[in-house]
Each structure stands twice: as structure tokens, then as C-alpha cells.
Amino acid sequence: MSGRLTLSWVNKDKALVPTDDGSYQWVERDDPRVTEVRLLQQRERVGDVTDGPEDNLLIRGDSYDALHALARTPEYAARYRGKVNLVYIDPPFNTNQAFEDYEDSLEHSVWLGMMRERLLLVRDLLADGGSVWVHLDDAEVAYCRVLMDEIFGRANFIATVVWKRRNDPRNTATHISADHDFILCYAKELGSTKFQHLPRTEAMDSAYVNPDGDLRGPWRRGDLAARNFYSKGLYPVTTPSGRLIAGPPSGSYWRVSEDELKRLDADGRIYWGPDGSSRPYLKRYLSEVKGGRVPSSVWHPEEVGFVRNGKEEVRALVGDVFATPKPERLLERVIQIATRPGDVVLDCFAGSGTTGAVAQKLNRKWVLVEASSLTVEKFTKPRLEKVVCGEDKGGVTKDVSWDGGGGFRVLEIGPSLYERFGSRLLLADWAKGEEFSRAVAAQLRFAYKADGPFCGSKGRTRLAVIDGVADDVVVRSVVSHLEEEERVTIVAKGASPEAAETLAWVSKGSRLLKAPADLTRSGRVVR
Ligand SMILES: C[S@@+](CC[C@H](N)C(=O)[O-])C[C@H]1O[C@@H](n2cnc3c(N)ncnc32)[C@H](O)[C@@H]1O
């Protein structure tokens, strides 16, 4: 024991795989269903897309498989690993309810295990200056806070935001009406994280007035006396009306020296009251106020939306009610604080797609993952289609002057490379030809690129995938295509007895692997 505080739960040393009923099953951490990197298969293109790495992605499938693929498949890892600026997730809160669109009643340890696996991958994907925001209610927030301390480090905790989501307490509550949610916010690396200030509000600006018609515009009185000791801060002043003031108010010091006060006064920056006889105040001009508003940890529904706003926004767009959508203004607030235009935003519990819709309207790049195909078809995809087509007139559209543009690709988590027969693991029927090569490349972290007998390279090592048996002739033929100093990893469905020996002889340092047995020990998540 290192003495570190950690949260423990039943089966914490195990991993989870999703089951068909929306729940999860505990398995060993090196189970191929956990270590396998699934391929992301393209299903649709919506709006303007380039098929390049910059495209926004809507991924249908389990968030673990999706995050794993984004972090481990070289093509996606180059774009996303260590490069995601904001992760906002609104996972099932574990409130022990069955919503129409998804189940929300996992066994406590299963919920924690499920979150742990995904947050570990989120950490890998976040940029050093990035942040993760986890939206929860009282059911799991305390446990998730400790879990996130463990994963991201206590030192990287930023704040627990409280979103007051309703102003009409439920009178039917047994004891106390819970009217707020929490959003736990952690930095990947606090020292590198810079949040944006929020735009100033009209109320803030209205504190600035211009009773004396100052040409610099509206201003606000700034106190020139403070309690902090200042060696040059005790001196008498004479007001423009001729009144002598012996010094600053008792127990305080002028904030500026006598010379500086004279300079400011000559520049018209000192206010002496309406008749020129009060003690001096500094004029702070609105035109010189830098930056906006530092975000606070309490968010009011009048500013960021009520629960009902989220539902209305989705219903207005797709004509159906999603159980738990968040209001667009809430996501606008998160995205404004944590990112700049062009940054990458990820939400792997996408639901109706609020995060993607708002990210698009604010000119951020996004990746959404949603496990329920029904939800994707009924809510997420149609909503995002309307956003890019400029047909979404609700939410934050008007405030940010959005009128459509851009696009996204719809991807799906590919099927497993393996099939189980009792305790035996075999290759799935579909594992043939190019698809087989692509899947093998992903497991071994080679970027897929067909080139003669090869289908990928990593440094000076090439990958050759043989959809059959590798024998002496095959091995020699593959090696004959290598450049000097190149090595090859050959993966075959079978190998003749002498093939490995031949390979070692003709290309020292190259290796021969058999699928599936030699693949299942690769691609393990670093825990
Ligand atoms: C609370 S809702 C998210 C609502 C969303 N923030 C919105 O504004 O619409 C949680 C979503 O997570 C999805 N989900 C649950 N488990 C998942 C998993 N393992 N992978 C991906 N999505 C999952 C559910 O289907 C549900 O749509």
C-alpha cells in the first residue's frame, strides 16, 4: 500500500463488457473483448465532409469501444490521442429508473467499473490543456469525485459546478426536493489549462455611468483607499473645492503615491464627488475593462436553461420527446469556458446530441458516441442534420447567429474479429481479405496502407497479413519486398512448421504471428 486514498469496489480488478440488455458483464482484464481494438466503419456522410481527419464524427456503439478505437487505431489516434480539448459527458446517473430511451439502474460497482474504464481512455485522449466535465446528480457524484481524483489526480480538480435546473421545487418530494445537478470538472494537467472568461453581461456594464459627460465614456468609481500597508500611502490631499483631507480613512492607505495621484488627476481620471469636495476616487472606464467574467460555480437556469428547455428544443426539432436532454445554453456555457473555435469536443454518452449541436453552432469540432441505435436514428442524427442544414432555429441558434454549414460522418463500431466456441477463440467468419488486414493492423497499431504484400508500417517495420497459411515460399516472397534495414511482422491464419525458422534466417528481427492466438495479447489498455 502506498498510503494513497483509493475507492475500492467488488471486481475493481476486472473489466466489463456490455451485454445485449443494456447492462454489463464482468470479465478478466485481458479478455479479448476488452483488449480488442474494434474498427470504426463508415456508414453515412452528412453535409460537407472531406473524409479526412478533421471531419466531425457521430459514432454508433458502446463508448468503451469507440474511445478505445480513437485512442489506439493509428489513423484516429493521430488526430485524437492527447488532442481532445474538452470532454463533456452526461452518463446515466444511476437513479434506478428505466427511461424510455435507456436503462438507468446499474449495480453500484458496475456503474463505477463502467465509468472507470471510460475515464481512463478519456484521460489518454485529452490534450494537456484539456478538461473533462462529468454531469451527475446525487446518486453517484460523491463516488465519481473520488474516482476522478484517482484517475486525474486531486491536484487537477477544478470545480464542482452546480446547475440549478428548476425553480419550482417538487412538493411531492419525500424529504427535500433536489433541484440541481452537479458537473465535476477536472483538468488533464491543471498548470496547462486556461479557461476562457465569459462575455460581460448587460447588468455588469450598467454599473458604468457618465454623470460628468467624460469623453472617455461610462465609468465606475474605484476606491483609492485600501487596508493593505503601502509605504507611500499616507499623505494629505486638497480637493478641487479647496477642502483639506488629512489622509485616507482611518486604518487604510491611499493605493497610489502622491505623485501618481497628481498625474491621474491631471489626466482627468480622478473623481472628487459632484461638487469637487469628496475624497478622491479612481475612474474605471468601461472602455478599458479587459476580459469578461470569470465563471462562477453556481449556474442559474435563467442564464443556462431549465430542464424543460432541453426537452422543448429536442421536441421542436425532431417531434419526439427524449428523456434527459440538456438545454443548449448549458452546453454553450461549458464549451465557451473550456474551448476556443476549432477545438475538439467529445461526448461519449451523446443522447439526443446536444453537445454536438452546440459545438457545431460554436464552430468547434466534435465527436459524439451513442450506444442506442434507436436514439441515434430517432434523435441524434436528425437533430445534427438539421443543425448543419440550417433548419434548427432553436436553442442557441439566434444568440450565436448560426445559419447552418459543415457536416459529419456517421460511423459504427465494427463487429468483433473473434468468435467464441466454448473456451476456444476463433476468427469470425467475416475476417477475410482486406477487412482482415485492416483489423489485424488495428490490433497491432499499424496504420493501414495497402502497398504490395504489405498493409502497414510502423517505423522500419512493415506488416504483412496472410489470409491463409504462411509457408517457406510465402515468407521468402514477403521478405524479398523489404528494403534494406526493414523488418516485417507477418500475421497469418496458420504457418508451416519451418516458416518461423526461415523468417528468422532470411530477415533477422522479423516475426511471425498466428491469428487469433498471438493477437489477443496485444492492444491491452494501460490501466
Ligand atoms: C443522460 S443521456 C445523455 C443526454 C444528452 N446529454 C443530451 O443532451 O441529450 C445518457 C445517454 O448515454 C447513452 N449510453 C448509456 N451507456 C452508454 C455506453 N456504454 N456507451 C455509449 N452511450 C451510452 C444512453 O443511451 C443515453 O442516450
From TrEMBL:
<dbReference type="InterPro" id="IPR002052">
    <property type="entry name" value="DNA_methylase_N6_adenine_CS"/>
</dbReference>
<comment type="similarity">
    <text>Belongs to the N(4)/N(6)-methyltransferase family.</text>
</comment>
<feature type="domain" description="DNA methylase N-4/N-6">
    <location>
        <begin position="84"/>
        <end position="373"/>
    </location>
</feature>
<dbReference type="GO" id="GO:0008170">
    <property type="term" value="F:N-methyltransferase activity"/>
</dbReference>
<dbReference type="GO" id="GO:0003677">
    <property type="term" value="F:DNA binding"/>
</dbReference>
<keyword id="KW-0949">S-adenosyl-L-methionine</keyword>
<protein>
    <submittedName>
        <fullName>Adenine-specific DNA-methyltransferase</fullName>
    </submittedName>
</protein>
<dbReference type="InterPro" id="IPR029063">
    <property type="entry name" value="SAM-dependent_MTases_sf"/>
</dbReference>
<dbReference type="InterPro" id="IPR002941">
    <property type="entry name" value="DNA_methylase_N4/N6"/>
</dbReference>
<keyword id="KW-0489">Methyltransferase</keyword>
<dbReference type="GO" id="GO:0032259">
    <property type="term" value="P:methylation"/>
</dbReference>
<dbReference type="InterPro" id="IPR002295">
    <property type="entry name" value="N4/N6-MTase_EcoPI_Mod-like"/>
</dbReference>
<keyword id="KW-0808">Transferase</keyword>
<dbReference type="Pfam" id="PF01555">
    <property type="entry name" value="N6_N4_Mtase"/>
</dbReference>
